[in-house]
Amino acid sequence: MKFLLPVVMVLLVAADAQARPRRTYTYTNSHSSASFSGSDQERCQQEADYMAANGITGHVGSCIGSFEGVGYGSSPNCNTCTPSGSMRLTGDASARGRNGMWYRVRSWR
Hints:
single chain; disordered N terminus
């Protein structure tokens, strides 16, 4: 009986993990050749436009501000990562791709 309880618990955890859809976040910087210039707001818009034009769902280029969050979804206000500490939002831009998906970039300092 002592052996059966851990096996049942493992099976329940495995079944629960399969039942919940997993959300994947990509934190790659494979497109670092892209560069953007101007204010944080302008750079956020340039990066969002670039992501939308190329269907990129991860970070592009160097970090805008002290912290940058990117996201994609079905609305222009889709979620992005946010800083854990107190920072001021310095840029927030969205762009719609040909696929209908929205790409968003936000920066903080």
